[in-house]
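User: Here's a chain of 295 residues. Predict its fold as tokens.
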Amino acid sequence: MNKEIFRGIGTALVTPMNESGVDYDALARLLDFQLEGGVNALIVCATTGEAPTLTDEEHIDVIEFCVDRVAGRVPVIAGTGSNYTDHAVEMSVKAQKVGADALLCVTPYYNKCTQKGLVQSFYRIADATDLPMIVYSVPSRTGMKILPETCVELAKHPRIAGIKEATGDMATVVDIRARCGENFAVWSGNDDITVPMMAMGGSGCISVFSNIMPKAAVEMTRLFDAGDVRGAAALQCRYKPLMDALFSEVNPIPVKAALAEMGIIEDCLRLPLTPMEPEHREKLVALMRAEGLVK
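Assistant: Prediction complete.
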């Protein structure tokens, strides 16, 4: 059974902010830009969306705003993970009530657990709603990864659809695919290995890059699915320097700077995140200028 929620590019959306709070006018512009760019899904209130700095009320309001604006054109996947399972359950139930199509749940952070604890935690969250769920492995942020053998156990749950795999380790991806097959989808959590991941049977990418270049990101996955692997690989190589620049500082600092340069949002973050350093910003803007994103 293939539990693929979407195929292609799902944008890991930033949360536009200003001094007053969430900037819903800018969020509307960003959502329209993404939909015009043809993205296949939108992932809101997750890492790139600065979820840890949102109040619970803001978190659910942003999800509801996105659901209403998108109006069913693509799946809206709500980030509802937490290092406290009961809180993740609460947020997941609320996300379903405001119309989210699916959930993205990160592994617990700081009070990291065993692999057995991961399975029990994810099962409890998945049991709490009727929504499909993507689990999220990003050890650079959480200090732990979801092991391939754990994916086998997670795949047994009818609502756990797959994994956002952000270890950057292709051997882990191969192992997951070998063990789970079509019963467990794998999305890249790293823009710079989208095509290699798809070559291993991956479903696409949950992308930061597509915040600024949705059409290009979508075209890369479209070419791959059309059988033009060389064309897809060429785009992967062409955009790698820009993808790297978007991670020259902690995400979402650079992508917010980029979107501000494009006039879509304000360059506003919440502490502990701070604006991009001038030397990194200069390199990012130069790469954006080469792609015609800014003058």
